[in-house]
């Protein structure tokens, strides 16, 4: 039952057992490939996991086998981060494909793009979130900060002002 795997995945995520949570979300999605919340939560949990790994001193990276000579290589942390980020973005894209009016998918995708330094794309995604929900204060706030960061001060201040009007 996809719902039961999903619910258990949420329980695992609450205790920060990200690997078990992701396993259950993968099982739920294998049973129901149009499970929007499972894609959304999988992206969120992967993002939490990536941020946790990035912020810990002892990073454990997956190992890959290079083939005949049996040498073991480790992925650099930057390569692993790019790979994980791509998986996260694909899940958000799938959410948007299945439910194009889900503002939080655009917002979270923008947050990931911002962490990657792709500020123009992030601003575009924040704008789409605002298009879906005109009262999305956090999207105005983040878009405002991003605009300020890239030197678009007038746009940034206008967005921060709107975020303030909406309660931030």
Portion of residues in beta strands equals under 5%
Give the C-alpha Rg. Answer: 18 Å
Mean pLDDT: 89
Oligomer: single chain
Estimate the global geometry from the Cα principal axes: globular
Summarize, please.
With 168 residues, the chain is mainly α.
What is the element layout, followed by pairings?
Elements: H1 2-14, H2 18-31, H3 36-55, E1 63-65, E2 72-74, H4 77-98, H5 103-115, H6 119-132, H7 137-149, H8 153-165
Antiparallel strand pairs: 1-2
Highlighted features:
single chain; mainly alpha; 8 helices
Can you put this structure into words, describing what you see?
The chain has 168 residues and is mainly alpha-helical. 73% of the residues lie in helices and 4% in strands. It has eight helices and two strands. A hairpin with a 6-residue loop joins strand 1 and strand 2. Helix 4 runs antiparallel to helix 5 and helix 6 (119-132) runs antiparallel to helix 7. The longest helix is centred in the middle third of the chain and has 22 residues, at 77-98. The relative contact order is 0.08.
